[in-house]
Fold:
Amino acid sequence: MKFNPQVRKAIYAAVAGLVPLLVALGFLTGEQSQAILSSVAALLAFLASAMAVNNTETNNPEGEFEDVTEGVEPPHIPGV
Structure:
């Protein structure tokens, strides 16, 4: 499952709507709801970080970079 921003937003919305309902119905206390919401936020933040690490990679592990300015004229700056 991909945890893109839309999926994470849907999870936050579902949990943020469900937890207060469970508190109102007496299934959870205020302290429990805070712990659940904090845990879900931390889990989703971890998954977002893991996804970012997984989806970014080093193009040049040797540290050498391609010269992208080769053959490009510098911009003309009037008065310089």
